[in-house]
Write a structure and sequence with these properties.
83% of the residues lie in helices and 0% in strands. It is an all-alpha fold and 186 residues long. It starts with a helix and ends in a 7-residue tail after the last helix.
Length: 186
């Protein structure tokens, strides 16, 4: 009779461990899926950037340096292979796009182009979608990190090879710029 109780306890412990492992796998897969959603939006962004560059080149050929930085950032972003490399490359592309926005402010005739206006609207839409999928990615990463760090799953997470993953964050160098209120001029 005692061995039956011991066997039931062992089976319950094994089932509990299997459930914990499956939960960790589910959370890791959820995070990877969230990043795949970011990849989809980045692909749309990368496909749109050459169109934007072509349109802007037609109106502002003298701003070649800004456009070259944008093209180089896009190329680097497309060549990134790991999640961390993609995050860094995406941040560089975001900075290049911000530089383009500054150029647009300096050259109002760019805003008058219907093609540019359409591309600008599409970029805004993609940027909004990117923000949403980045929030989802960070949420999935937080859930995984919570499971990896909380007791008792933290003990077994290490045994199963799970570890904390980085969030999709703004680089420290860009934080000072983001802390300033935007300057609006009419």
């Amino acid at each position: 009779m005692t061995w039956i109780i011991v066997l039931v306890v062992v089976v319950l412990i094994v089932l509990w461990l299997v459930g914990m492992y499956n939960n960790l796998v589910r959370l890791r897969n959820n995070r990877e899926n969230a990043f795949a959603n970011i990849d989809v939006q980045l692909k749309q962004r990368y496909d749109l950037v050459p169109q934007l560059v072509a349109t802007v080149k037609g109106y502002a050929t003298h701003e070649l340096q800004t456009l070259q930085r944008l093209t180089e950032a896009r190329t680097a972003a497309m060549g990134a292979t790991t999640i961390n490399d993609k995050i860094a490359a995406d941040n560089a592309l975001t900075n290049a796009l911000a530089g383009l926005k500054v150029q647009v402010e300096a050259y109002p005739e760019l805003k008058a182009s219907q093609n540019f206006m359409q591309l600008q609207t599409e970029i805004a839409d993609i940027e909004n979608k990117l923000a949403a999928v980045r929030r989802f990615f960070n949420s999935a990463t937080r859930e995984l990190n919570n499971a990896v760090q909380t007791f008792p799953s933290n003990i077994f997470a290490k045994m199963f090879g799970f570890h904390c993953e980085p969030m999709f964050e703004v680089p420290q160098a860009d934080r000072a710029t983001l802390d300033k209120a935007p300057e609006i001029k009419f």
